[in-house]
Every structure is written in structure tokens, then in C-alpha cells.
Amino acid sequence: VEDFVTGQANDPEGVSIDRINNKLYWANYDGGLWSANLDGTSKTQLLAEPEGGSTLVIGDRLYFDYYVASGDIHLKSTNLDGTAMSTITTGITKVVFGLAYEATNNKIYWGDRSAGKIMRGNLDGSGIETWFAKDGSSPRGIVFGKKK
Fold first, then answer.
1. Residues near 19 by Cβ (< 8 Å), separated by ≥ 6?
2. C-beta of residue 88 within 8 angstroms of C-beta of residue 125
3. pTM of the model
4. By C-alpha distance, which of 64, 62, 39, 36 is closest to 49?
5. Mind listing the pLDDT tens digit for each residue in 56-93?
6. Cα Rg for the chain, rounded, in angstroms?
7. Which helix (H) or strand (E) holds 32?
8. Beta strand 55-58 with 23-28: parallel, antiparallel or unpaired?
9. Strands 117-122 and 107-112
10. What burial class does residue 10 get, using C-beta atoms within 10 Å of its C-beta: 0-12 exposed, 13-18 middle, 19+ buried?
11. Starting at the edge strand that comes first in sequence, how are the strands of the sheet with 107-112 ordered?
């Protein structure tokens, strides 16, 4: 066991690996979207303002939740260097602890914990819909696997 990231204002959340470029991405719960090489070098703050709990690399884009002072959570994406930010959706009720990508239908999924829903949509933000809903649930940690 070794320390990989130190000196963060709060705990790193939502770690995501980019296997193509050998990078690790994470959000700091109290602010900042970060990357580092998988050998621990070149720790870089891509954006200072996002506060959140999830990151996910899909192709050449980084998806993440972004806390807004009003209490609204947005799902956003950027290029892997933090440029060209776009908004996928708004109105999420609580910090997201679970983003997933399903390649067959090319959809991104996220949990809206307070609403008890798993939402999904196209990578450009179109086609947003409720995929699962159950009162009293608090969805997080979404994973897709292969059926044997």
C-alpha cells in the first residue's frame, strides 16, 4: 500500500481510470477535478470549481457531477484535459456516487439518491429518462458486467 495522492483539500472521490492514456481522474468532494499519470507523476488540477463524487472516462471525454451553490447537481463532461465543458443534465438532487457506461446502447447512467432513481441518457444529454425508480432507495455504485 502506498499513498498515490496527497495534499487534497478533502477526500478524493469517484476515481476513474483512462487505460488508453494511462491516467487516473478523480473529483475532490470540496472542489477540483484532477488527473495524474498511473505512475503517480504529473498530478494536475483540470478544473478548480467542480465539487462532486463521481468521474467516468468514456472515449475522449470525462463525465462528472458538479455541485452548484443552489444545491442543484449537474452532470457535465469535458475533454480529458478539462476543456470544452458541456452540461449533460441538471436537477439531480444529491451528489452522485455512481456513474456507469453501457456500451451496447451507448448510454450513461447515474444515481439520483434523494429521488430514489437511476437515470440514463445519451452522451450528449439527449434522451434523458428514468431507468429505475424505487421509493426509499439511494442508488450508487452502478456497474455493468458481461453475462457468461
1. none
2. yes
3. 0.91
4. 64
5. 999 999 999 998 877 889 999 999 999 999 999 999 98
6. 15
7. none
8. unpaired
9. antiparallel
10. exposed
11. 99-102, 107-112, 117-122, 129-133
